[in-house]
Predict the 3D structure of the following.
Amino acid sequence: MISQLIFALLFIAAVTMFTINVRKVIRNIKLGRDIKINDRKGDRWKQMILVAFGQKKMFKRPLPALLHFVVYAGFIIINIELLEIVSDGIFGTHRILAQYVPAAFYNFIIASFEVLAILVLVGCVIFLGRRYIARIPRFWNKEMTKWPRTDATIILCTEIILMSLFLKMNAADSILQSRGSEHYFSAGLFPVSEFLFSYLNGFSDSTLVIIERFCWWGHIIGVFFFLNYIIWSKHFHILLAFPNVWYAKLTAKGEFTSLSSVTNEVKLMLDPNAVVTPENNPGKFGAKDVMDLNWKQLMDAYSCTECGRCTSACPANITGKLLSPRKIMMDTRDRLEEVGRNNDKHGIDFTDGKSLLGNYITEEELWACTSCNACVEECPVLIDPLSIITDLRRNLVMEESKLPSELTDMMSNIENNGAPWKFSPSDRFNWADGLDIPVMADLVARGEQPEVVFWIGCAGSFDDRYKSVVRSFAKILNEAKVKFAVLGLEETCTGDPAKRAGNEFLAQMQAMQNITTLNNYSVKNIVTACPHCFNNIKNEYPALGGNYEVLHHSAFLQKLLEDGRLVMKENNSLIGTAITYHDSCYLGRANDVYEAPRVVIESLKVELREMKKCKTNGLCCGGGGAQVFKEEENGTKRISTERAEQIMETGASVVAVGCPFCMTMIDDGLKQKNQEEKIKVKDIAELIAEANGL
Ligand code: SF4
Ligand code: SF4
């Protein structure tokens, strides 16, 4: 009776503490801005089953994934046994379930739990070995200071202890059962524990009862401890991973949100009589502290497993910059907990004069991000560090005007010239000199509509190197008899560089100007040779009223080939050439376009050699996120140099690209390695045009 009472008190205390602390976490998450996420419920359930339960993302690396799956699934399933342990504790019974389920079934589940327990135990030992013997670098990064490392060790050791106690308890029980001891009636099958702890056979009944009781109590007290420990540990992800994945973004990774508060301001600037949605007082733009982030971003922070997969894929981190996406998530959580503790102590109106931006995350970290989405792609629980980085950048730019001077120049150029460089808008159509390129205004004046509008982009319009790319693509369109048109002098910067750099005002001003032009001409289809224009128009213009079918030129070329409108010459001049392809982040990870450029390149009967980092694992060129307009942050190496080295490893004589920024950065990287004569950087449209003598 006394032991039942002690058990009940322990049980109530553990559950009460757990409930209080979970409520605190929920309260903290709710400190974030409110956003509605309840669309596409079917897709969300599917995502949760595949990614949270099935751990789909982990299986990129099969061995650790299998180990993790065994440890995680085993640990969860074994805890079903808790139902019986808790019932026995409360009612003072022994193996109560055996009285209610068929003996064969009971034997089966107990034997299964034993197999899972040993697998969990071995998995945890291997995980400890990976950390402390193999010393896998991502577990030893700068942000993995004493506490995060200790936390991981406590979790693994606790799981090992819990599994050991469980198996030893079973072993003592099975021997007592075989001896017909009082209270230990025959129930269960114990294949693992009987083997592991066979030495217990030499012990007396009374000693075995002490061992069995000690392990039983040790196991359940350990479980109660674990239950309350995980809330303050990275291990909380075993619970939060499920809702976090359910609420994760379903749209293209490349899509940045459009701040509705900014949209209202921009609409009113363009038309003082404009009808705007209620939010005329925008408050703060971007995020300075955790309360300025939305609740999903805060849930992300609590769901982070600190595995470091994001950081080990981050081009900035790989090349020695301060930025680590894992640290961004850890800092967000640490600051949120600090704010929560302040609220508990001093009430919700208390301010401690600190903020996430400044006290935890520095400007240098933020400006090192190329917005390549490698961290988002890697995360096993669909956390989005980039969205936090973007919101912090927005605050720096729109609230504090703190940004690198080159970016200020870039934004002034967009404002004044409609392009990120200092060129006259009247020169925008010079790229077409000597070519007969149809202009939209002329077509519409004649009452005609093109099949597709060719969006040139600022690089195609002004950058001498990229002019050759858009000219090549225009020649291919003519060759394939595609009825196309360009906007000519009516085109202006999409706003993409301003958006990635955090200037949502300027980005939306540019977008709305273009949307007005495109909608006036009732444009439906757009093709562009720039992945940044492609991503911006396709994914971000719809929120502002611009809805178009947008294709990157690689996908358009693939379509022309498949439709038989574009036919390669039988003996094209590139047959057999060794070519490698560099995936642009804004085409690949941001929009999942991996096959089209490869299909187009392979249509030339060349030898396509993949780099060790390609497709979803592709390394950024270093130019995204407006980086191409500024100096890189201090590090050990330039990102473009790292990529150039990977290109050189393939032995290819040509690196094919599909992006103006990638072309510039890779060219730069190859020059730094003195490879510019040996390895040529060419756009896929240039390759098609060159090979076919266009
Ligand atoms: S988006 Fe790319 S550069 Fe930015 S933090 Fe993530 S991995 Fe690093
Ligand atoms: S953000 Fe995701 S990938 Fe990065 S450490 Fe956290 S759980 Fe791992």
